[in-house]
Design goal:
Strand content: 5-15%
Order of helices and strands: HHHHHHHHHHHHEEEEHEEEH
Strand order of the largest sheet: 4-1-6-5
Number of strands: 7
Structural class: alpha+beta
Helix content: 40-55%
Largest sheet: 4 strands, mixed
């Protein structure tokens, strides 16, 4: 395990960090409150989402559901529809489920152990909520924190290994928190400061080292290893998947169905879909006895590329305008075309709709 200079200027460094935060920290609306609901909502939205985009969604949710009771009373479809465009829709389903957990227990949980019992809340999110809303003495460790600590202390242990996760968690919780307590800094303030420092100053690419207040004590800057740290092992295998979507238009109506569990976009709606692989529209229609072929439907666009975390999707879009209403599986529903915006749709299907209505 990497040997760490734990005692080297920790108190001074964190005092500098706090001063930097007071001058440069982001003025975010959820930082103007200690309401745990508002803080929890922001943390869930900002998982896998940039602040600029998440801000708009946070305000939208707070306007529509200003309390956890209001969110719990909503339907899952309503929550998914409001979430549309943010991606990673399991976050929205977990958010809704957790809102009902909170209402059922009678109040927002105020210990780390109980906060982590909420659906969709892991160690980082619980630490952020607990420290900011309740000033619990718990350090956050996320991508920004890994980067700042790795560079500042010159740690080359991979951040996505068991050893690395334990090392950084120990450093943050057992070394930094006691030091910041001696300096009179609360955990919530420190956590927000180091997260903003990583997001604004010590960025992944082109960090602002020349005007960094921690430059003189930063090990990576001293040894010219800024671009080498943090170290992350490449373990993610990206898979490709081919899909076919057929938008059916029949007398001002279209057919959609809700995607089931165990696959991408669970709970969202889509038009007639074919999991491509080696299938084409023609042989799929033949296998399923549909009066459909590339001769009677219009190809709108082929191989539309859509990137997800673990896979790359390639989609072919078709428009089919049959003379008679086709018989579809029982999970499909017919709706007026004008009503489709009332249903939560994946971003890829929004692209299809743009082509249909172009």
């Amino acid at each position: 395990m990497t040997s760490l200079p734990f005692g080297r200027g920790l108190g001074v460094g964190m005092w500098i960090l706090l001063q930097w935060f007071q001058e440069n920290g982001r003025d975010l609306p959820w930082r103007q409150t200690r309401d745990p609901y508002a803080i929890w909502l922001s943390e869930i939205i900002l998982q896998q989402t940039q602040v600029k985009q998440g801000w708009e969604y946070w305000e939208r949710f707070m306007r529509r559901w200003p309390t956890v009771e209001a969110l719990a009373a909503a339907t899952e479809d309503e929550v998914l529809r409001e979430w549309q465009g943010l991606g990673y829709y399991s976050r929205a389903r977990n958010l809704h489920y957790a809102a009902r957990q909170i209402v059922a227990r009678g109040s927002f949980p105020n210990t780390i152990e109980d906060i982590k019992k909420l659906k969709g809340v892991g160690d980082y999110t619980a630490a952020a909520i607990g420290s900011i809303a309740f000033n619990l003495p718990v350090a956050v460790v996320d991508g920004n924190v890994y980067r700042v600590l790795s560079r500042y202390f010159g740690i080359d242990t991979p951040i996505n290994t068991t050893e690395g996760k334990k090392l950084f968690a120990t450093l943050a919780q057992e070394q930094l928190l006691p030091a910041l307590n001696r300096e009179g800094m609360g955990a919530g303030l420190y956590n927000q400061a180091i997260m903003d420092f990583g997001a604004i100053q010590c960025t992944p690419q082109s960090p602002k080292c020349d005007d960094c207040p921690l430059m003189e004590s930063c090990e990576a800057f001293r040894t010219n290893r800024i671009q080498e740290l943090p170290v992350k092992l490449k373990t993610l295998k990206i898979r490709e998947r081919h899909l076919i979507f057929i938008y059916i238009r029949y007398k001002g109506q279209t057919a959609i169905h809700r995607r089931g569990a165990g696959d991408i976009w669970q709970g969202l709606y889509e038009p007639l879909s074919i999991d491509g692989g080696q299938l084409t529209v023609d042989n799929w229609a033949t296998q399923n006895h549909y009066p459909l072929s590339t001769a009677n439907c219009q190809l709108l666009r082929k191989n539309v590329r859509h990137v997800l975390t673990h896979r790359i999707l390639y989609a072919d879009f078709y428009l089919w305008e049959p003379d008679e209403q086709p018989s579809l599986p029982s999970d499909y529903i017919w709706i007026p075309e004008s009503d489709i915006d009332n249903y939560a749709l994946p971003r890829l299907i929004e692209v299809l709709l743009e082509l249909v209505h172009a």
